[in-house]
Please model this.
Amino acid sequence: MQFPRPPERTDATEGCNIAHAVWRCDAPPGHGPSFAGETCSPSRGRHRMAAAACRLAQEIAAVGFDVPVAEIRRPSRAENRACDARHVAMYLANTTFGISLSRIALAFGRDRTSIAYAVRRVEEWRDDEAFEQSLQRLEGLATAACRAIDSGVAVKMAAEAQP
Model:
């Protein structure tokens, strides 16, 4: 895989290139960007990687808030805890993985302005010391996961785990 940095985002956490990965067209079956009949394009690969990063952010937030990931992914409004977890997932996708607000909006089925609101809201919560510590743990987990993906460790472990 190639991991170029696009000019559109420069403030993402160092070492997290997941959002900008370009899927190679010559990758072996099961490791490439396309399913049967699909064409390979950098745009499609970046969209898929952004969607995967958003799913990862949702999983991390679900663990951190002890909320089922299905609640975070619900298209309608949810209880406060699930809504807070969803906002943190959006925040992680934007700040840690460097996903643009527009791509996060597509992945979460929301409007771009809703994503911007969620990111601002989480930034305001950071003034609370307990929340700040929790968020730093989640950011650390997201960064570690990102580095594992970047280095190929996660792919190797997943391949070894399959029967």
In short: The helical segments are 42-65, 69-73, 80-95, 101-108, 112-125, 129-151, 153-161. The chain has seven helices and no strands. The chain has a mean pLDDT of 77. Residues 18-150 form a domain with the Chromosomal Replication Initiator Protein Dnaa; Chain: A; fold (CATH 1.10.1750.10).
